[in-house]
Amino acid sequence: MTNTPDQESTLDTPVEAAATSNILPPRVPDPQQGHSIAAWTTVLFIILGSTFGAVGLIFELHWLAWTGLGVAVAGVIVGKTLQAMGFGQVREDK
User: Fold this and answer.
1) Torsion over CA: 21, 26, 27, 33 (sign)
2) What is the pLDDT of residues 64-78, one digit of tens each?
3) How many domains does the chain have?
């Protein structure tokens, strides 16, 4: 069944309407973005650094707060280094 502007559609649900019309774009394949050693290492460092920083701020341990900030910044640097070494997301050339 094709829907043209001149015909009235009598579909019961929005799912049926979407399935039978051409208004939806084709499904884009999932690029698996972020599923790499570099991404997981970066996230782990940032989570640990922010946890250390938060605990340091809560208990007024300024050295721990600054250490947490340093660990988070180091995580970004380590992640970019791992990405440059080839442990990042594989890009498909078009």
Assistant:
1) negative
2) 999 999 999 999 999
3) 1
Domain range for 42: 32-94
**DSSP alpha helices (H): ranges in 1-94?**
14-20, 37-58, 62-82
C-alpha to C-alpha distance for 56 and 59, rounded to whole angstroms = 5
Q: Is 37 exposed, middle or buried (0-12, 13-18, 19+ CB in 10 A)?
A: middle
> Rounded mean pLDDT of the chain?
82
Nearest residue to 36 via CA among 94, 80, 93:
80
- Note whether residue 89 is domain-resident: yes
